[in-house]
Amino acid sequence: MSQIKKVATGFIIIFLLFTIFPHHSSAIGVSAKAAILIEQESGRILYEKNAHTKMRIASITKIMTAILAIESGKLDDMVKVSDRALNAEGSAIYLQKGEKIKLEDLVYGLMLRSGNDAAVAIAEHVGGSLEGFVVMMNQKAAEIGMTNTVFANPHGLDDHENHFSTAYDMAILTQYAMKNETYQKISGTEVHRAPNPNEKWDRVWHNKNKLLTSLYEYSTGGKTGFTTRAKRTLVSTASKDDFDTIAVTLNDPNDWKDHINLHNYAYNNYDLVKIKNQGQLEKVNNEFYENKVFIDRDLRYPLTAEEQNNVKIHLTLLTPNKEWKDPKDVPDVVGQMSVKLEENEIANLPIYF
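Request: output the structure for the sequence above.
Response:
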């Protein structure tokens, strides 16, 4: 491989999950012990409070359980309910002994009604055993950058000491999950019907997320949680004019109000600015590349009115090689576009030929 190609292959897309300069505003006051607000696409932190403090998380654990079930590709499988699932404590969808239920319906029961019996049934089917599924949960957490999280069960009950996360890690998990259209659909469903094995009528599950069902017009989904030790935990997603936000609160006695205030803070103080359009880059100061290079996605980023004047774009292109006598000889990636807000890099995208 030539040195040029080695350099080119190094220019992989690096879209930052967060910036190191979140806003702290006295205009927001949250009751939570820990909280975070991020913009979904870029992951920019718009507000944080003790966001990296390790805490118990209760049933927002089930976001990980749900996305692993969805990614398993087994949603159409029929799951036989075990005694272990039936014996799960706390909130339930009241599965019955020996019944067979579609995995997809279990995920709806997990997310809408927070069924701990559903969580165990999912774990046993997808992971081979509850313990095997917990290994999968921690592997996925490591894969997506949840560096301060340990999962010990699929439901969030306080049956282990080593089950914890942070507001930041749960925001990263939700950002990851929201890239999946099936997860988006399930998380944002208000009512789901599922067959009842012993009755003529269906089970009907109403979502416990009051932001989605009644309190907040911009709500797109989320997950509630509560245990005696964790207190109230909540993850919520919202969208206004294509501006998508994620809020997480841990140990919050006033979470519905806090989440509404957090999402509104984003919409009132930031604009989701399209910094660069997908497609051909214009005004490239290099004759070889003129009208021949492009980026493969729109670059959007949340900015305050003041920040919009402080964004700078810098293009770095490979020096054309004399051996590039035919377009097919040119590497696919020929440079990078660095975007900075003041002195902080907020995005780094590959430039394609």
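Residues 1-26 have pLDDT under 50 and may be disordered.
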